[in-house]
Specification:
Elements lengths: L4 E7 L12 H21 L8 E6 L5 H9 L3 E4 L5 H15 L2 E5 L8 H11 L4 E5 L5 E6 L17 H12 L3 E3 L12 H6 L7
Parallel strand pairs: 1-2, 1-4, 2-3, 5-7
Antiparallel strand pairs: 4-6, 5-6
Length: 205
C-alpha cells in the first residue's frame, strides 16, 4: 500500500511579545521571538521525503523573510483556521485528508524531531490509522492520522500533562489502533535552553 501523506506544521508567526511567552522572563520579548524564528526556520528545513505536500499553517501573516524561505523549500503557506488549538487541528486534519490518504501534524517547538522521526511516522501510518509522537511534558509533538474524529480534539486540556493520556483513551474508545513513537522534548521553559545549546542552538540571554 503506497499512501499519499501530507505534512502540516502549525506555528506562531515570530512576533515579539506573542511567542515563547514562558521564556520572555529569561530571554526578553525580542530574544523569545528570535528563538521562535530559529526553531521555525530549522523545522522548515526538515527533509521532504515521504510527503506529497507540505503546508505551514501560521497564526498571522508571514514577514518577507519567512515567506521567501517557505517558498524556496516548497512549503505552501496558509493562514490557520479559527478556533482553539483542537478545533484548528481538527479542521487542518480534515482538509488534509480531503487531498491525501494520511496527514502528519507537527509544531515547530521540537528540535529533536528529525527526518528519521518523520520517516518512522510515515512508516507507522502504513500499518495503523494513528501514530503519536509523545512529548516528555505529557503532550505530543506529532500526530499522524488516516481518519479523523472530533473526539480527538474536543475539550482537550491543551498545554497540560494530560493531553497524551486523554488522546490515547479516546482512541481506545473509538477502537482505533495506534503506534507510539519514541518520546521527544520540546522547547517551552527556561530549563530547556541548555539542551538547545547542546544541539548547537544558542540564544542570546
Amino acid at each position: 500500500m503506497n499512501l499519499s501523506i501530507s505534512l502540516h506544521m502549525l506555528a506562531r508567526a515570530p512576533v515579539p511579545g506573542r511567542v515563547k511567552t514562558r521564556l520572555i522572563p529569561v530571554l526578553g520579548e525580542e530574544g523569545a521571538c528570535d528563538l521562535q524564528r530559529v526553531l521555525l526556520e530549522r523545522a522548515l528545513q526538515l527533509p521532504a521525503a515521504g510527503f506529497s505536500q507540505r503546508f505551514l499553517w501560521l497564526d498571522d501573516s508571514p514577514d518577507a523573510q519567512l515567506q521567501a524561505l517557505a517558498d524556496r523549500l516548497n512549503w505552501t503557506l496558509v493562514e490557520q483556521p479559527a478556533g482553539d488549538l483542537g478545533e484548528r487541528m481538527r479542521r487542518i486534519a480534515t482538509l488534509g485528508l480531503a487531498e491525501s490518504d494520511a496527514v502528519v501534524l507537527i509544531g515547530n517547538d521540537c528540535p529533536a524531531l528529525d527526518g528519521d522521526y518523520l520517516s518512522g511516522a510515515c512508516e507507522a501510518l502504513h500499518g495503523q490509522p494513528v501514530v503519536l509522537g509523545p512529548a516528555e511534558d505529557g503532550g505530543y509533538v506529532l500526530l499522524g492520522l488516516r481518519c479523523v474524529d472530533p473526539a480527538l480534539f474536543h475539550a482537550m486540556p491543551w498545554g497540560t500533562d494530560q493531553v497524551l493520556n486523554m488522546t490515547c483513551e479516546r482512541l481506545q474508545q473509538l477502537d482505533w489502533h495506534h503506534r507510539l513513537l519514541p518520546v521527544l522534548w520540546d522547547v517551552d521553559r527556561p530549563e530547556d535552553l541548555p539542551r538547545l545549546a547542546a544541539l548547537g542552538i544558542r540564544v542570546e540571554v
